[in-house]
Each structure stands twice: as C-alpha cells, then as structure tokens.
Request: fold
Amino acid sequence: MYPRITDLLYDLFGWRSPIPLYSFGLMVAVGILLAAYTTAANFRWMHRSGILPAIAIRLRRKGQARSEHAVRPPSEVVGNLALIAAATGLVGAKLFHIWEYWDLFRARPWEMLFSPGGLTFYGGLITGALGVVWALRRYRIPIKPAADAIAPGLMLAYGVGRIGCHLAGDGDWGIPADLAAKPDWLPTWLWAETYPRAIVGPPEVPVYPTPLYEFFLCTLFFGLLWVLRRHPYRFGWLFSLYLVLNGLERFLIEQIRVNPRFSFFGWQVTQAELIALLLMLGGLVGLWRTWRRRP
Reply:
C-alpha cells in the first residue's frame, strides 16, 4: 500500500519529491476527470441529436468594458460543472463524515476538520448533486437529460476513488477475513489484506479489501450504464437506474464493511445502509415513472 504516490516513485526510481502527493487525492482527481470526459461525450451526442440545446456563455475579452454572450454547445461547460461538483461535494463529504463520527469530532474537532482524509461519499453525492443542479439551471440546461448523461461517469468516478481508499488504507476496509473460506483459485490479496502502511493504522488481522470489490462492481455497472446511455425511455430513466445500482452495490458491501452503526426504529444500521436503501427506493420510483418511450 502506498498512501503517498511519491513514496512509490522513491521506491521505484530513488527520487523523493519535496511535496508529498497523496494517493487518495490523486485517484479522486482521476475519477473527476474521467467523469467529465464521459459526460462531455454524452453532452455532445445529445446536442447533435437535438436533446440538449445550445447555451449562452458570457465572455469578456481583454480591454472590453462589457461582457458578450456567445452561443456554445453544452459540452463546453462540463469543466465548470466538474469544478462545482468537486467543491460542493467536498463540503458535503466532510460534513457527513463528521455526522457519522460525531463522538470523535467532539473529542478532536480541528483535527477532523482539516484532515485530508475523513470523507463520506454519500455526503459528497448529495451536496455535489445540489451544486450541479444549481449550475444546470444557471446555464439553462434541461436537468433530466443532463442527469442521464452524467450517470455513467459518476459511477466510474466512485469506483476509481475507491482505489484511492485502498492505496491509502484510510479505514474503508471490511471485517476480518475468513481465510479458511477462501477459494483456492482466488489470490490472497483479493480475499484478505493487512494494509501495512495504512494512514489510520493497520488492522489487527487481515480484512476483506472492500474498496477493490467496490471498484470491480462500479466498473461493471459503468459498462452497463454506458451501453444503455442511448436508451429510448423518458429522460431520467438512466439516472434512476444509476441510483438503484449504486444503492445496491453499497448496501451489499456494507454487510462486510467496518462502519459505526446506530439505532433506526430498533434496526441497527449504518449511515450508508440507510442512504443506500433510500437511493434504491427513489431509483425504483424513477424507473417506474420513466419506463415509457419518448415521443
């Protein structure tokens, strides 16, 4: 495990960077870039097909007192959407992590606030989605078809981000692995991991490397969403399917993952389990309401 990519470069080439480059941040950045790339590709296709209209962008040239408006394809603002999603998502991810570990936050508030780790995906998804919706309204881009265009990349970005969690060893691992139950054909590193360089301290016993499982599942679901991206159903159908798949993937992983639990009407659940169930429910309702062909 290499929480810092610069340590890997040192081991391979003997060169030590004066500025540490963290694995988690690097993989999150890669995930955002991949999501922006796939979203831009979908925006371009939707614009050529007449689904997404051209938008007016305000331009200000050097030496001009007033800005001008230029008509551009919507794919040109995908970079802005990615930046807005990253900024608002980072705030939500930190706030939801504090909510999940409230007792620890009360004991060490400043350490948790300014720690480079300690981010909860669903918090970032919720606040990032709100930020993107605000930006789409500002650019006057229809929200439902845009959500369909964003869905595949969002699934891929989450999976790539989990590789960052695995490299960093930030505690997003599973429960102790049952080595006796490991199939002979499966590599040990895919069944049980010790995370010797984990940034939060290695686990006491080998555990299930759940970030890898999430990466494999998300890559599979990304492929499915990408194949279905030109679906004939009403707008919002693909994003509803994304909600179902995302919630299903996370709910299953939570069964072998270490996370604090709390009582919800007598049911001991994790924060992620509860949100995953709500996402699946909302996605199923969305599929039911959009499962009709577009005119």
In short: DSSP finds ten helices and four strands in the chain. The CA atoms of residues 60 and 102 lie 46 Å apart. The two ends are 52 Å apart (CA to CA). The chain has a mean pLDDT of 87.
